[in-house]
């Protein structure tokens, strides 16, 4: 038996639902079965993981970033300025008529019945059937007769695609998203060795665990970084422009910390414990490339980054043009790699 890091209940890891260290929605493939119970896993999935994933759903959709298990990125239901609802398929492809299906009949002056059906080709048979049922119920002839009479109706297909212009915004899902990132950092750290597992379950990390579990004790546990270090060429080369990065390290003054970059856009620091992990190095890193779903643990070449993070305390809040420029550059690179044509025309924070 194991005990859950977040609720202390006992469970059998053999029958326990595996939990992704990095969210499945973010392309994470690494799972653990012995750190968090199925109950907490299920509850936190809806409560904190979903808001984090939704904060980046436009990005995941537009660059067609698949989930860790290979599933497609989300289709987004978007309400445009004209009030019309549109479904944005991966790649931000909108099928305007699909969102606006037509199924009706009317009579002209001569008394001829006209039928109009517009919709996605997959939906046409059921639309025909429904309309036939409606006519039959009002006008007498059987549904089958009517269906036969509209068998050869000219159907307007909706294969035509339309591209939309959209102002993007990304966020990390607020406090809930922060809790989800904290959960990932704790799981990543705890799974390294019996010693890290013990430390993760100890009172030294109680605040961090409580923050994940119920959102309490949030003060001073996390900071957004408004200044993303301008370059980590080693990582961009290996993991593309949109990499996700988790680093857990000892900060000389602040104890055990995590530094997290989401899609190389957002950056934040979390405090796992105000006590340092009693080993000289805590070499815990995870980085992933959501574009082709590769990932690696304990990568080389991030010493500079960790040093930068340690040297820079939490930043004062405020607008940061550096981050915006960085993001424009990163989107441009992602366009080149994925063949997309995403225009950034607005500041994103
Ligand atoms: Zn639990």
How would you describe the overall organization of this protein?
With 349 residues, the protein is of the alpha+beta class. The protein has helices spanning 38-55, 57-62, 124-139, 143-149, 174-190, 194-201, 206-214, 233-239, 303-311, 321-338, and strands at 2-3, 10-11, 19-20, 31-32, 76-79, 85-89, 93-94, 102-107, 113-118, 162-163, 222-224, 244-251, 255-262, 266-273, 284-289, 294-297. The strands form five sheets. Strands 11-14-13-12-15-16 form a six-stranded antiparallel beta sheet, sandwiched between helices. A four-stranded antiparallel beta sheet has the order 5-6-7-10. A hairpin with a 3-residue loop joins strand 13 (255-262) and strand 14 (266-273). Helix 1 (38-55) crosses helix 5 (174-190) and helix 5 (174-190) crosses helix 7 (206-214). The two termini are 44 Å apart. The model is unreliable at 158-163 and 345-349 (pLDDT under 50). The structure holds zinc ion. The site of zinc ion has 8 residues, from helix 1. Zinc ion (ZN) binds at residues 4, 6-7, 9, 36-37, 39-40.
Descriptive key words:
binds zinc ion, 2 domains, alpha+beta, 349 residues, four-stranded antiparallel sheet
Briefly summarize what is shown.
With 349 residues, the protein is of the alpha+beta class. It has 10 helices and 16 strands. Residues 158-163 and 345-349 have low confidence and may be disordered.
